[in-house]
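In the current project phase, the collection of sequences with tokenised folds has grown. A representative record is quoted in full directly below:
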Amino acid sequence: MSEKEESDIANDKGDQKYDYKTEQKRRKLEKKRLREEHDKLPEEEKIDYWKIEAFKPGDMPAPLVQESSFAVLFPAYREKYLREIWPVVTKHLSNYGLKCVLDCHQGSMAVLTSRKTWDPWAILCGRDFIKLLARSVPFEQAIRVFEDGTSSEIIKIGNITRNKQKFVKRRQRLIGPNGQTLKAIELLTKCYVFIMGSTVSAIGPLSGIKQVHRIAEDCMRNIHPVYHIKELMIKKELSKNPALANESWDRFLPRFKSKNRKKTKRPLLKKKKYSPFPPQQTPRKIDLQMESGEYFLNSEQKIFNKRKEQRIQQAQKTKERELKREKAFIPPREENQTQSTEYNINNSVQNIKTFTKKRKSEKQHEQESDYILPSKRTKNH
């Protein structure tokens, strides 16, 4: 719009009353006209309004008013590596106008701003940088924190499980055999992951760090990282398809059921009754001897009693040994022994009865034969 047209519109506005609806219509038409003009331009001249321009030296008009600093403690085994690498660290931080101090006596390192600092966000990047160095992350990876679009996080996993053996097993599960599981997580999340002690350090884009945080915590809660890796692989394949960009991916993602095993119920311990008085003192050996009267015996009487007890014990043991020897000669008891004995008794009784009957019948026959005379023999004679 030219200056004359703007002045005419201003005069018209001054003369007429302000109308909200007409003003909204005018603004919409103005936006539409500007959009059409922008679309007609070639791609090289088009302006990307969503692009965040890089912060360069000279963009900050005045230096920082006050000095700010951050300090971090590091373990003793890390001192040798930090001494070797510190000249390179100071050189890199000087590019952003930052100072660094290594105090080996107290075991700390600090980052400070100076008058030459041209980026106010650099001090926060320096803080994350020294934190990663303290957690044994190599310098080549920790330096990526100063790049745009990359961030870092130190995830604490030591407080999730109390049992030390479970913690070691689950941490090893996160690394995998020969570091294969950790490598798969790095490729899918586009982050550098480093496990040291009870922490997991992650460097990369913010979306990838959120995924690493979720995988690490779930692994410590006994959810295997393979399930998350499978889910990320499916999401990666689905993201390549533009047709599914505005659709839900829930139907494609796997659903794993949690298998809760029944825990063995521990027996409930009965609560003891409270008593304000302390428990009775256990008697000493001398007290027991005095009660039995052994304390007042002579040495000869003590030896005599001791030998007597030994003889009694020997006699008991000899009886036990004899019983064990006799058991080998005792025949095993048969199960159907009672039935067979009853059957044998019944048979024997019947046999005796039959035998007596036969015997009686034979005697009677002999007696009858004695009274009868032979007739044929008398005639012949």
